[in-house]
Write a structure and sequence with these properties.
globular, 2 helices, single chain
Length: about 200
């Protein structure tokens, strides 16, 4: 029994040392890779809001509007910290973000995300996706999905579209529905709650 305890102690100390050494290592090449997105299910309010941040002041306003992380069920991992995108070079890049608002998830693989961003001649299109349950369930929890993504800078209007797949009721699914369009010079638009 004592040998088992000693072996366990050696294992714990060895793992802790390994983690400490790994955390202290610097990336090779001398430069860290810039974080390009942040997402999760614990930020936002009751309604869908889309944002385009073309400068640091606007990005700070987006983070403030997102608010503090919402309470999730025990064991659910917190989302990515929006501050991980603070080092964006706004001369070359901008951040598009969607906060889908409060939703009910049933633990059936629900998720919302930005699939792609394309720049055309007249506008930038942010293609969003949502996979939702929409059927009977024995348990559910509240979620506030969000996704912020660093993309090439553009002064064009930004149109946010969404394709929604309802797993339990596929006939409710929608393709390429317009969430919002943010005109050049604007930075946010809130979509009223659906009744």
């Amino acid at each position: 029994m004592i040998n088992a305890v000693k072996a366990m102690a050696v294992l714990v100390v060895g793992c802790a040392f390994s983690l400490a050494v790994h955390a202290a290592e610097k990336p090779t090449g001398g430069t860290e890779k810039q974080v390009q997105e942040a997402r999760g299910i614990d930020l936002g309010g009751p309604t869908t809001i889309v944002f385009v941040a073309r400068d640091k002041v606007t990005w700070d306003a987006v983070k403030k509007a997102a608010g503090k992380p919402q309470m999730l069920p025990l064991g659910m991992p917190p989302g990515d910290d929006l501050e991980s995108l603070d080092n964006v070079d706004f001369q070359k890049k901008m951040i598009v973000a969607v906060f889908w608002g409060e939703m009910t998830f049933a633990g059936r693989g629900e998720q919302c995300w930005i699939e792609s961003v394309t720049t055309g001649k007249e506008e930038v299109v942010v293609d969003c996706r949502a996979t939702l349950w929409g059927g009977r369930t024995t348990a559910a929890y509240r979620a506030w999905p969000y996704h912020a993504k660093v993309v090439d800078r553009s002064e064009l209007a930004v149109r946010f579209t969404q394709t929604t797949e309802w797993k339990a009721t596929p006939d409710r699914s929608e393709k390429v529905k317009v969430l919002a369009t943010i005109k050049a010079g604007e930075w946010k638009q809130e979509k009223p709650a659906e009744k």
